[in-house]
Amino acid sequence: MIILSKLADYGVIVATQLAAEPERxxxxxxxxxQTRLPRATVAKLLKALAHGGLVTASRGAAGGYRLxxxxxxxxxxxxxxxxxxxxxxxxxxxxxxxxTRTDFCSTKPHWKRINDAVGTALAGMTLAEMTPAAxxxxxxKLPPKSGPKDGQGAVQ
Amino acid sequence: MIILSKLADYGVIVATQLAAEPERxxxxxxxxxQTRLPRATVAKLLKALAHGGLVTASRGAAGGYRLxxxxxxxxxxxxxxxxxxxxxxxxxxxxxxxxTRTDFCSTKPHWKRINDAVGTALAGMTLAEMTPAAxxxxxxKLPPKSGPKDGQGAVQ
DNA sequence: CTTATTGAGTACTAGAACAGTCCTAAATAC
DNA sequence: GTATTTAGGACTGTTCTAGTACTCAATAAG
Lengths: 156, 156
Description:
Two copies of one chain form a homodimer. Chain A is mainly α. Helices cover 51% and strands 5% of the residues of chain A. The first copy, chain A, is built from eight helices and two strands, in the order H-H-H-E-E-H-H-H-H-H. Chain A has helices at 6-20, 28-35, 39-51, 76-84, 91-95, 108-123, 127-130, 132-141; strands at 55-58, 64-67. A two-stranded antiparallel ribbon of chain A has the order 1-2. In chain A, a hairpin with a 5-residue loop joins strand 1 (55-58) and strand 2. Chain A is globular, with a radius of gyration of 19 Å. In chain A, 35% of the residues are buried. Chains A and B meet through helix 1, helix 4, helix 5 and helix 6 of A and helix 1, helix 4, helix 5 and helix 6 of B.
């Protein structure tokens, strides 16, 4: 089973790309090239991110997108929610008490615990931590098994 | 977005039902009645659980299912994995390095952290904790806002 | 041994969700 | 005015999910 949809995954990648150079305004076509994702798909993702208030858009010639807030203030949970909707472990976690089994379902109250754990995990990581720069910093401190001598560790 | 599929959710419900009376052997039809789930679906779930080694089956007349291990030794993660397959945050978390973006994808290494958090949350809860008995015990210690005077709290 | 019961395994179908594309309108720079 | 770029839908093909049905194998009871 996969937790994130492909689009949510892509959304994080696109947002991370924006976070890599926050001062610049980048248009959808350029982001598509940078991330090697289909142009139309990237455009769709950016619309969703803009709708969620995570990026700001400028229309017209020389327009484009940039992060609405500092990358360190945008959590992965927000990015995912902007694309996939609210995060819930089960159907009943989202829809509330309209489950026909509510009355005798003993599992329901427990999902909240798991739900919170997942939410915390996604909310506890920011876009800033996803950038290559952050990855590099981490790699300097905690070199992989193969050691820092081969540059591959930083990518893999 | 919903993390668990309906079937995985149902799987936990069915397994919890088995955990409620571990000494008895119950057949698929009875479990379907107890959980109010479609009989054919319950049968399908039980097959998956049996395949995953979580329940043992006895064929033939007076056959049925029971937990293969004590409920306290079966984690929700195992139940979910038996039905939905291995848990991964993204496609690449499962498929490994065959992603075409591996070389320049800076987000990939970070998913592991989130992946582990989700896995830990699901692995940290057992079937025993999901049973009504466990719920009741918890409710005795931590009564809900409405207080223990109305018996409803234990079900909701 | 025969028969009824029950799980095992597989195949199948309808429906929903997902991923991706395309088109038209609105805004902006030159 | 014209080119560029996002906004907002609509649309489509594919994949996945949920649910059902059917046949085979195993077991208990008479």
